[in-house]
């Protein structure tokens, strides 16, 4: 295999960074430029990236980010990826076409996918430079507070944050996390067929993995999450305010 594949196969989240280790501007620029070169539907680039490396602003964001506070605060830079239609709106205005994406599921899926692909490119480039990363979807719980700090306009929606920093090897305990059995979500020439036996096998794998952060089994964690739908109302409210849905 090659170095790129080895890097991807050995990905793991690193939540402990050494505070005060800034990312040199040439490396941060390279990470952002790599993100911007990600695949994009019709080359629409339906996203915006907010690069937060100012300590004051980063601290403000960390203070409202709950359980994600520490890795954001200690990161060398915190990137926020938004599904964003403001450039498309400008394109429509230049062509004299009415811009309207309200209640367009296709628009939301397209922009979210574009933003996620850009973030993944940023992760790969950051890790290739030796940095640790945390992809942070939980900041959507406080997206209104963060967007207020950053003066985010309508027609944009926070998808995910990305902490990048120098790993604190004294505190770091994260290991490469096992994935579902391949037959559960990979099919060759046909859709994969999962079953309870495969899921049960994975539950046992994760119990043996014994991640310190986990207090529930894999099945219990997601049964509770999707049963309660904690993000549902928050996301719906933000999507309405940002003119994605009526």
In short:
By secondary structure, this protein is α+β, with helices and mostly antiparallel strands.
Architecture overview:
The chain has 246 residues and is α+β, with helices and mostly antiparallel strands. The chain has a single domain (3-173, 233-241), classed as 3-Layer(aba) Sandwich (NADH Oxidase). The chain contains eleven helices and four strands. Strands 1-2-4-3 form a four-stranded antiparallel sheet, sandwiched between helices. α2 (25-36) runs antiparallel to α6. The longest helix has 24 residues, at 105-128. The termini are far apart.
Secondary-structure map:
Blueprint: H1 3-9, H2 25-36, E1 47-52, H3 55-63, H4 69-74, E2 77-84, H5 86-94, H6 105-128, E3 132-136, H7 143-150, E4 156-165, H8 182-185, H9 196-209, H10 218-228, H11 232-241
Antiparallel strand pairs: 1-2, 2-4, 3-4
Helix pairs in contact: 2-6
Our count of domains comes out at 1
How many DSSP E strands?
4
What summary fits the major beta sheet?
4 strands, antiparallel
Instruction: Give the CATH topology.
Output: NADH Oxidase
Strand order of the largest sheet: 1-2-4-3
Radius of gyration: 19 Å
Structural class, from helix and strand content? alpha+beta
Looking at the overall shape, the CATH architecture is 3-Layer(aba) Sandwich
- Straight-line N-to-C gap: 49 Å
Strand residues, percent: 5-15%
Shape: globular
- State the order of secondary-structure elements, H for helix, E for strand: HHEHHEHHEHEHHHH
Helix content: 40-55%
Number of helices: 11
CATH class: Alpha Beta
Can you say what the CATH homologous superfamily is? NADH Oxidase
- Mean of pLDDT: 94
Quaternary structure classification: single chain
Poorly predicted segments = none
């Amino acid at each position: 295999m090659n170095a790129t594949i080895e890097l991807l196969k050995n990905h793991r989240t690193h939540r402990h960074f050494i505070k005060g280790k800034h990312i040199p501007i040439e490396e941060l620029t390279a990470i952002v430029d790599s993100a911007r070169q990600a695949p994009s539907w019709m080359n629409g680039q339906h996203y915006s990236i907010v690069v937060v490396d100012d300590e004051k602003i980063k601290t403000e964001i960390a203070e409202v980010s709950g359980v994600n506070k520490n890795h954001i605060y200690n990161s060398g830079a915190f990137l926020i990826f938004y599904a964003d239609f403001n450039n498309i709106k400008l394109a429509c205005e230049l062509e004299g076409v009415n811009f309207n994406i309200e209640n367009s599921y296709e628009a939301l899926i397209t922009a979210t996918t574009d933003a996620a692909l850009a973030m993944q490119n940023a992760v790969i480039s950051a890790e290739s430079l030796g940095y640790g990363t945390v992809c942070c979807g939980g900041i959507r719980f406080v997206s209104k507070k963060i967007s207020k700090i950053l003066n985010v306009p309508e027609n944009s929606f926070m998808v995910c944050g990305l902490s990048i920093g120098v790993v604190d090897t004294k505190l770091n305990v994260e290991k490469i996390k096992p994935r579902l059995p391949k037959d559960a979500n990979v099919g060759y020439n046909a859709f994969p067929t999962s079953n309870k036996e495969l899921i049960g096998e994975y539950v046992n794998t994760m119990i043996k993995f014994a991640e310190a952060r986990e207090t529930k089994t894999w099945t219990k964690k997601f049964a509770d999450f999707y049963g309660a739908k904690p993000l549902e109302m928050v996301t719906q409210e933000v999507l309405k305010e940002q003119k994605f849905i009526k």
